[in-house]
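Oxidoreductase
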Amino acid sequence: MNDGKNQDFGLLFLRVSGALFLLWVHGLPKVLHYSEQLTLIEDPFHLGAHVTLGLAIFAEVLCPLLIVAGVLVRLACLPIIAVLVIAMLVVHPEWTLLEGQFGWLLLIIFTSLLIAGPGRLVVGQRFS
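Predicted structure tokens:
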């Protein structure tokens, strides 16, 4: 058994499953229901709903797509981590660990990818 290949497949699974989950649950609803989301989004830094929603869409749609492809993975994790930290500590500081478990688990996933990188199974990379 090749440990390097196992690690690469493990990172691929973490990358793709975490990114697609974030995209499906948070990103796509923001894009598909943009007008409704403008009325619902929290704006903790008073940037305006359009700017705040645009930043959230960047972090929850574009960044996960880059991560799935294995392109600029560490860099793409940073906006996601920022949105999650803001959501957990600024927007919803009253949440218990139980109420915020989904956010904390996503934070664990994307921080792990930031630390470990994408592995060798990325777009444009040969795997032998």
